[in-house]
What does this fold into?
Amino acid sequence: MRKLDDIKAKFVEIYGGIYEHSPWVAETAFGGGMGDLSVKMREVVENAGKDAQLALLRTHPDLAGKLAKSGTLTVESTSEQAGAGLDECSEAEFSEFTQLNDSYKAKFGFPYILAVKGRYRVEILTNFRSRIDNSPEQEFREALDQVHQIAKLRLKGLA
It folds into this structure.
């Protein structure tokens, strides 16, 4: 049993950051048999219930937010946001991101989430502006789908 615990601990060490600050996803996916890890982890989240899903969404940082400016994002988030040019925002862009982040969180209760890999800040701002008018149900689903996309990209990056 000790060896299995060691293997599980190593698995969680490697895959625990795939879903932002949510090692519980990797812990639950561990031992689920062979197959696509991305699919297994997605199923864990989808079956976790709305409270756990909301908690997962709330672990994500604001895009181009205070954590990014202070340098306290996870390594993965820092890389993803920098790759999208969010660390190069003009003062006007940063101000708009801040206003949109605040409005979005007030409306939905979690931060705006977008898989930013392969996108640039102008495209991200356009997407942000369009999603702020979604219904809470639409946006909850979209945010979860984006979290799954982020996780899939992070898993691919480990390969």
